[in-house]
């Protein structure tokens, strides 16, 4: 059995964005090389905030596996979690390379190979020294992806990874996520893009039922499952062609 | 930075906002305010010398000698303390106003205006306070 990265039990809480788990407490176990997908709008963002200690827990528990130690006194523990913002979040006066290196430089930690991280996220070398405002939205998103793994975290949280990403290039995201799974990372994805979410998921959470559901392919609407399978096939095909 | 979620991103990466954003700005504020005060002082001295030379001849050495004779370590200490403190305080105030912003871009000009007015008021109040403390300790010298 693979190692547990995160275990959330009967979680209810409140964040600046609102309450979560009041009607249906959140329950899931995320293991390494697994992708859990939370389908919904702002509900996933609320859960991410609770996981990062940015809200108050009224009931239940959050337990991280080895490699992540939560510390209520000091926010530096959050560097052990890789987080990808929806669309914003890059430091505007730093270049893309500086943005990616920022967590490592600040915490004085060794980054994994920067070249590898930038290449994995497919950031063009000519853009490395440009500021976020000088590149397109897609490059910004790629920089957010690269920054999230620079400290080699065991847990990755992607807040709507398809936001800003063109539909035709979803295979790039697919490849990146698969690489992270191969590196034994546990990945949580929050998305409104149901086909993409289902295509990537090992299990899902939904706003109306926040208990992890592994048999979603049987219970969910067939149209969703079909479009997810179609999307997955097309992404695998494109990855194959590009290779 | 707040609107672009840069602050949120820093906190998510475990980087404390006060250390990374506020403290360097406070130090820069103190330093720049002190440098600005030095330039202002030099300009005022030369201005007064030029003014004194309109109707009569007043040598620069005499002015500098008089100035040096009147200057005491307490003056220098208070000059340094007052300007670095006020500079840091104004920048701290501006950062606090900026960080109080929620999310909407329309709030930016509102908090900017508020910050400018508050900084001006705080600057005047602190200038008067420091001067009163200085004269209370050292006394008037003519």
Keywords:
heterodimer; A: 243 residues; alpha/beta; 6-stranded mixed sheet; B: 80% helix; elongated
Task: Let me know the number of strands of chain A.
Answer: 10
Number of domains of chain B: 1
Q: For the report, how would you describe the main beta sheet of chain A?
A: 6 strands, mixed
- Evaluate the radius of gyration of chain A: 17 Å
Indicate the low-confidence ranges of chain A by residue numbers. none
3D shape of chain B: elongated
Question: For the terminal residues of chain A, how far apart are their CA atoms?
Answer: 32 Å
Largest sheet of chain B: none
- Secondary-structure-based class of chain A equals alpha/beta
The gross shape of chain A turns out to be globular
Most extensive interface: pair and counts? A-B, 21 and 14 residues
Q: Topology as H/E string of chain B?
A: HHHHH
**Discrete helix count of chain B:** 5
Strand content of chain B: under 5%
Counting DSSP E segments of at least 2 residues, the number of strands of chain B comes to 0
Q: What are the secondary-structure elements of chain A, in order, as H or E?
A: EEEEHEEHHHEHEHEEHH
Low-confidence parts of chain B, pLDDT < 50 over ≥5 residues? none
Helical residue percent band of chain A: 25-40%
Written account of the structure:
The complex is a heterodimer of chains A (243) and B (142). Chain A is of the alpha/beta class and 243 residues long. Chain A is 35% helix and 24% strand. Chain A has eight helices and ten strands. Chain A has helices at residues 43-51, 96-107, 114-120, 137-148, 170-182, 194-200, 216-219, 222-242; strands at residues 4-15, 18-20, 26-31, 35-39, 56-64, 81-84, 155-159, 186-191, 203-206, 209-213. In chain A, the strands form two sheets. A six-stranded mixed β-sheet of chain A has the order 6-7-8-4-9-10, with helices on both faces. In chain A, strands 1, 2, 3 and 5 form a four-stranded antiparallel β-sheet that branches. Chain B has one domain (6-38, 72-138).
């Amino acid at each position: 059995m693979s190692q547990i990265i995160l275990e959330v039990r009967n979680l209810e809480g409140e964040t600046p964005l609102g309450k979560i788990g009041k009607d249906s407490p959140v329950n899931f176990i995320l293991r390494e090389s697994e992708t859990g997908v939370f389908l919904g709008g702002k509900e996933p963002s609320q859960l991410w905030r609770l996981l990062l200690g940015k809200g108050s827990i009224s009931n239940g528990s959050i337990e991280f596996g080895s490699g992540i130690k939560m510390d209520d006194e000091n926010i530096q523990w959050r560097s052990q979690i890789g987080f990808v913002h929806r669309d914003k979040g890059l430091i505007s006066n730093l270049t893309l390379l500086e943005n990616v290196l920022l967590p490592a430089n600040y915490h004085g930690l060794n980054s994994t190979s920067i070249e590898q991280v930038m290449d994995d996220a497919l950031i063009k070398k000519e853009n490395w020294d440009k500021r976020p405002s000088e590149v397109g939205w897609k490059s910004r998103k790629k920089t957010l992806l690269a920054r999230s793994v620079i400290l080699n975290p065991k847990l990755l949280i992607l807040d709507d990874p398809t936001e800003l990403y063109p539909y035709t290039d979803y295979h790039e995201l697919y490849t990146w996520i698969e690489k992270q799974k191969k590196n034994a990372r546990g990945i949580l994805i929050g998305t409104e893009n149901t086909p993409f979410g289902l295509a990537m998921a090992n299990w899902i959470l939904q706003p109306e039922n926040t208990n992890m559901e592994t048999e979603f392919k049987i219970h969910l609407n067939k149209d969703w499952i079909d479009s997810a399978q179609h999307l997955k096939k097309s992404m695998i095909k494109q990855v194959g062609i590009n290779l | 930075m707040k609107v672009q979620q840069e602050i949120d991103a820093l906190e998510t990466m475990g980087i404390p906002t006060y250390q990374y954003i506020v403290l360097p700005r406070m130090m820069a504020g103190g330093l720049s305010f002190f440098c600005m005060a030095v330039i202002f002082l030099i300009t005022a001295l030369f201005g007064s010398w030029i003014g004194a030379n309109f109707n009569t001849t007043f040598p620069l050495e005499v002015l500098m000698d008089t100035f040096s004779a009147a200057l005491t370590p307490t003056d220098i200490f208070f000059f340094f303390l007052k300007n670095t403190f006020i500079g840091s305080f104004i920048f701290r105030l501006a950062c606090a106003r900026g960080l109080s912003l929620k999310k909407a871009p329309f709030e930016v000009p509102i908090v900017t205006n508020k910050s400018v007015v508050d900084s001006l008021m705080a600057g005047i109040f602190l200038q008067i306070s420091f001067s009163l403390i200085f004269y209370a300790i050292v006394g008037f010298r003519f």
